[in-house]
Every structure is written in structure tokens, then in C-alpha cells.
Amino acid sequence: MQQSRYQVNDHLSIGASIGMSYQAIAMKTDLRFPNEMIGVLRMVDEVVCAPFKGNGDIITDLLLFGMCNSKEAMNPFNKMGALDVAMEQSLSPSYNLGILWEPTDDFSFGMVYQSEAKMRLRGKYLINNAVAPQQLVAGLNSSATGQVLAAILGLPGFVPDIESGLVAMDFKYPQHFKAGIKYKIFPDLQMNFDVGWTDFSAWDKFKFEFDRQISLLKVAKLLSADVSDRSLALPLRFQSAWRWGIGFEYSATDRLKLRMGYEPRTSSIPDDKRNTMVPINNAQLFGLGLGYRFDQDTDLDLSIGFLRSRDDIPANTSSLANKTGVDNILLNPYAGLDIKTNTKVTLLGINYRTRW
Fold it and tell me: What CA–CA distance (Å, rounded) separates 14 from 99?
């Protein structure tokens, strides 16, 4: 990171820096589609097709579009496949601007702005298709009327066991603003308080763009406007949020400083988009740390943080978790069910600074 600082006067200074960072996104998940339309397909197999299993003829094939010829039926709560995606960009530029006002030794006020970083993530994907969608497509294509129906709906003629290739996504790391004060309550005890805002609304959706047509997507596009033959958009609808935090620093010796802090983190995820893929809603963060100065030019900081988030998602309230309906095809694995999440995260940090 390249940075510079300008001392305006004895009490005021401004600074700027240019940062270069590495960004990556990875996702590995099973795909289940507990959708009412898929439930209808299961009912057709169990009720309508049951009398014709093993003794169908050309008439039933024509009337039922060959759907009864599938050896395994679609089930809304069965696995439809598995998706493994990994993307990255090795260099992502951004810039920071800051101002610091220190009228006395006991009080200071500062602000910092971090710009957004736009990037084009690229990587690879691997999809393992389950037997049920393979059998559905094979059954349709075993009948003349089924082939016509599949052509009208744009369904694939064949679903392979594995599909792989290249994937890309436009990604934006959100801009951030923070302002805070430092106040020395006692000569050895300092309090820090800050408020911050992050533009999480930049994460309205994550759109994965594949290098070729995907069989499962050609089926799923019939039930969702966020799916096409070669793309999959996750409608996250994140919201920008303000957060505050407080911390204390105690100077045990001239070299050793002890720190502790607390930050209640307001969720950026709207109620109707809460999910188990990002199981962090409203959260609390507790932190402990210490700083040690070896000499005038060398410092070492160590920190540990504990974050905990609990969430209750009542049935039929989130379109990314448990909503029922026809158009809830994407990442909605627990349709009609109550969900509870409990997330615990431990954060470790180390910072070594020296000047020469």
C-alpha cells in the first residue's frame, strides 16, 4: 500500500493511500428445490403415472408426454445436484482518504473514507447433476409429444452427469466511511468511540455468468426470472447500515498496552432475504488485544475477537431460505420450515510495524 500524510498545522493532518488487494469468492453447496411446481411433478409420478409404470404404451406416452417413463421422479426435498464455484482477482485497487484533528493530548477526532473497488472475478465451476432431473429430461425425450413440449419450453435434450467450465462475475467491494473520537479518561486509560457506514446495498445480487449453457439452469429458468441458460443471479438485496463501537486502552507500562472493545453489528440482510448461506444477522463482537513497543520505530499488535449471531427465520418469510410458492427456486432449501441459526466466529489478528 502506498500512503502519504500532510501535516497542515500542529493539530490537523490529512492523509491518503492507494491499496492493492486480493479478492476471491468460493461456494460449494448442494442444490435442493422444494418448489410447489416440482411437488406437482412428484404428485404426477405417484398418482397419475403409478398405474402405467412398467406397462405403458404409445398412447400413454403421447398423452403424458413421456413423463411416466422416468425411473426416478423429481422430489422437492431431494438433491438436484451439487455446485462448486471458485473465482478470484489477484489485484483490486482502491483508495483511502483521512483526516485527524488533535487539539489536545487528551482528545482527538478522525474520519476516514475507503472507496469501493470494482472487479471482474473469474474462475471455474463444477456441477454434479442428480439422477432425477436426468430422468425427467430423458422421459420427455422418449415421447414425440414430450419432445415437442421440451422444445417449446427450451429444455435440454440431455442432462450429463457432470458439467464444468469457466465462470465470471462482476463484483463490487462496498465503500466505507468511519468517524471516531479518542479521549483520555485518565492518564493511563483511553476511550475510543466510533461510528461507521458501509454501502452494502452494492450487493444487490451476485450474478454468475457461465461460459456455456447449463442443463439445470435451462430447467430452473422456467420458474425464476433470475435464471437464464447461462447465468444465475442470487437476489441478496443487502442494505447499507450504520454501526457503532466502543473500546478502551490501558497503558500498563511505557511499552505495553492492553485493549478491549465491543461492537453491536446491525444486520445488512433484509428480513425477507435471511438465509443459512450467510448465517450472520444481528451480531455482537467482543475484542481483546495488546500492543507492545520494542523501540521507537517498532510495534507489535495482537488481537482476538469473538463474534456471535443468532437468528430465527419463521416459516414462509424468506425467499432465500424457507418460502413456499412457485417462483422460489433459488437457494430456498427449507420451504415451509422454521429455521434457527447460531453462528460463532473467532478472529485472530497480528500487526507488525517498523520504520527505517
Answer: 4
> Which residues form the domain of 121?
2-251
Q: Is residue 303 part of a domain?
A: no
* CATH code of the domain in which 246 resides: 2.40.160.60
Report how many domains make up the chain: 1
| pLDDT per position as a tens digit, 122-178 | 999 999 999 988 988 888 888 889 889 888 888 888 899 999 999 999 999 999 999
pTM of the model: 0.82
Helix (H) or strand (E) holding 150: helix 144-153
Instruction: Return d(Cα 163, Cα 83) in angstroms, integer.
Output: 10
pLDDT at residue 5 greater than cutoff 80: yes
pLDDT band (50, 70, 90) for residue 54: low
β-pairing, 241-251 vs 256-265, is: antiparallel
pLDDT by residue (tens digit) across 190-225? 999 999 999 999 999 999 999 999 988 888 888 788
317 found inside a domain: no
* Cβ contact 122:26 at 8 Å: no
Q: Is residue 234 part of a domain?
A: yes
Q: Is residue 30 part of a domain?
A: yes
> What do you get for the CA distance between the two ends of the chain, in Å?
16
241 grid coordinates? 447500515
Which residue in 81, 73, 72, 84 sits closest to 32, CA to CA? 81
DSSP-assigned letter for residue 44: I
What is the number of other CB atoms lying within 10 angstroms of the CB of residue 234?
19
